[in-house]
Amino acid sequence: METDSSRRTFLGVCLGGLGIIAAAAVSWPLFRYLAPRSASETAGKVVIPDTDVRNGEAKFFEYAGSSAVLIRKKNGELAAFSAVCTHLGCIVQWEKAKQGFLCPCHGGRYSADGVVLAGPPPRPLKKLPFTVAGGNITIG
Amino acid sequence: MSLIKKIVNWTDVRVGVREVVEKELTGYLLPRNINSWYSMGSILLFAFALQVVTGMLLLIYYVPDADKAFKSVSTIMNDVPYGWLIRMCHVVGSNMMMLALLFHMLSVLFMGSYKKPRELNWVTGFILFTLVQAISLTGYLLPWSQLSFWATTVATNSASAIPVVGPYLVELLRGSQLVGPPTLGRFFALHVAVIPAVIAALIGAHLFLLKRTGVSTPPFGVQDTGNQWQGESYRYEDHPGGIPFFPDYAFEDMRSIAIYMAIFLAVVFFDPYLFFPTDAFLPANPFATPAHIKPEWYFLANYQTLKLFPNELIGLSLQAVAMTFLALLPFIDRGRERHPLKRRLFMTCSVAGLLLWIGLSIWGHFS
Description:
The structure holds two protein chains of two kinds. Chain A is α+β, with helices and mostly antiparallel strands.
């Protein structure tokens, strides 16, 4: 009886082990198939002609699988930010008249430097690195 | 008391799970002389589930638009991690499911399991067979390759041979005069929504009938191989002293499924393009007909029959007669005997029919 019982346990453990291996063999491809493409895969430099952004205006574009914005302040200074509001992830809008950002979802306000002025956003907008050369602005 | 036992007890006092397990699994007895051919149904259930799961996964990246379909399939194959595996499982799965379905039908035919009182099991099974053919045909168009496009052109065109309504029927099927973007929309809806829902419902009906009538006793290893049912009243065919479905036959089912999976994965990993001619790798071009366009292997006999008869209507009618005969077989073959070797006329006709089908398929392949 004891031999039968230990044999049964051994076979049960083997079957369970095989089941776990099979489940892993199915789960990994499934996870990779469904996983979003990583930011490093989608990240690339975005080149915008200098003439595309006039003084006091903003240009929205896709960057690293998300939304970003490039602005030129009235004094001609450039700044690039992630356009994702730090409150709940809505996309901010550029208010030309007020020279600042408004998130229409819950009324969050940011200055042209991305600093929170009013509303619920807990952090400033994320700044993006950029370079200017040969009449082009390269973000990233 | 272990946690599992506590959960079982908790559920049992509420919904009586132990009674269900006793009635449907451990106390569900099957004939002692049951054989492996009886697990074909379980293999088919598993294969269908696999098609549903892989199909749902393909829907994530597939775009049902004539301008984007081919590119989206190429993306699945080349760019999406393991996309090739999901698609190959779906493609190979459809072919293997058809093969398992044919074996299931053949085992039912040779063991006489279609005879009364199981006529409805046969009829629902036969409808399922035609639906699986239909879902394969509609799925064939979706990659929008040269093969998809022209195979669908030829297949839908055969309906034009039907007198009076034929040409209108072709247009109705295609959604336009020729195969084009409207056809893709129709076939996509049929492939992913309409036909799978009908198949699922019919599988339910097929299993309900199986449970109500009871599993048939194989005509092997018993003295009396005749049909025991007299037709007097409803009677569940029970098998006192038989083997329990769980764990005994459930493990036999699992073994059969494992063998099926071994063959299936061998094709997926070692010969994935077995079912792909060269035209499957070229995007559809409505202005360039490829030479020798052929249907899938299970339609080759139909294809060759149509080629043999100069009049398409005769070719189609013959096929319709053969299909109707097969669908109504339990009402035509009403003999009591179920053992294949004791049914000489049946054996002669069915072996001849099978050889004819195989012969026509090979001829169609090489013609």
